[in-house]
Amino acid sequence: MPEGRRGVVVVSYGSSALLARNLVASTVPGDVVVVVDCFTDDGERAAVARLAERHGWLLEAPATNLGFGAGTNRGVARALAAGAGSVLLLNPDARIAPPDAARLHERVEQDPGVLVAPRILRPDGTPWLVRTARMDWGDGTMRPRSAPDGGADAGVLEWLSGACLAVGAQLWRKVGGFDEEYFLYWEDVDLSHRVRLAGGTLAVDGVATAHHDEGGTHPGRRRGRAKSETYYYFNVRNRLVFGARWLDDAGYRAWVRTVPRAVRAVLLQGGRAQLVTGAAPWRAAARGVRDGLAAGRRVRRAARGRGGAPGEHGAPGTGGAVPVGA
Questions:
Q1: CATH second-level architecture of 5-212?
Q2: Cα separation, 126 vs 120, whole angstroms
Q3: Where would I find the H helices in the chain?
Q4: How many CB atoms lie within 10 A of CB 264?
Q5: Contacts of 324 (CB under 8 A, 6+ apart)
Q6: pLDDT tens digit string along 238-269?
Q7: Residues linked to residue 13 through DSSP beta bridges, in sequence order
Q8: Which spans does this entry mark as compositional bias, Gly residues (predicted)?
C-alpha cells in the first residue's frame, strides 16, 4: 500500500519551454510536483515561477546552478517533506503519460527495494533504452544500447538512466540519493551501483513508456549529433571520478591507462566532423581529464582518511536487473 502521495521531481536549467510541454503532460492533480530551477537568468527564473504558480508546482529556486545530482536531491527532499511516498525523477526533455507514471509508482510502492525505469523511446519512436544499460568494469566502456542482453555477467555493471526513474522514499533514504560529486552525468550509474550494494534491484518496465529528446536541455546544442562542451567535459571527468570511487588501486590504474581510448569514444558521440572543424571538443575533454584525475585523487584520499580503502565496497554484482511486463 502507498505510504504517501506520488511525487515528481524535475531539475530545470534554461528549460521553461520544455517544462510547459513535457511536465504538464506527465502529471495529474494530486501529484507533488517539485521543480528545481537551477539559475540561468532572471527571465528564465520568472518563466519557471509563472509555470509553477499556474500548475500548482512546488518551486525550489537556488541562486546558482546546483547540477543535476544536487538539484535532484534538493527536489526529492522537498517532495518527501510534502508527503510523497514515492518519487518519479524526470528530465525536462522527457515525457511520460500519467498512466505509465502511475504504473512505475505502483511498482516501487509494492516493492520498496526496486529502482525502476520505463522503456524509453526517442521522439521518432526508435528505442533509446529498453533494458538496463551496461558498463564494463574493466575500463568503464558503455556497451551499445542495441547490444543483445547477455544476462548476468560479473564483469558488467548494469545501470538505469536518470532520464526517467521511480524510487520509493525508503530506498532513496537508504542509499542517500545522488552523489553530488558528479554534478552532471554518471550520477545515475553511481546510484544504480549503490542500490545494488544496498540489496536493492534494478528493473525496466516493459509496458510503461517514456519519450526522451536526448540533449534537449542543452540550449546551445548544434543540430545533428554534435554534443556540447559540457557533455564532453563531464563525461570524461566523471568516468574518472566513478573509477576512483569504486575500484581498488589496480583497477583504477587500469582505468587511467585507458583514458585516451575513453576520450575518443566520448568525443565520437558527437560525430567526426566537429573534431576537425574546431578545438572546443578537444579542449573540453582535456579539462575533463585534468579535473577528473584531481577529483579522483581527492576521492581516494577521503576514503583512506575514513579508515577504508578505495573500492573495498565496490565489487561487481550479478543479476538483479529484470525487465518486467509484456
A1: Alpha-Beta Complex (3.90)
A2: 9
A3: 16-18, 24-26, 42-55, 68-81, 98-110, 169-175, 187-197, 229-246, 249-257, 259-268, 273-277, 280-305
A4: 11
A5: 107, 203, 204, 205, 206, 207
A6: 999 999 999 999 999 999 999 999 999 999 88
A7: none
A8: 305-326
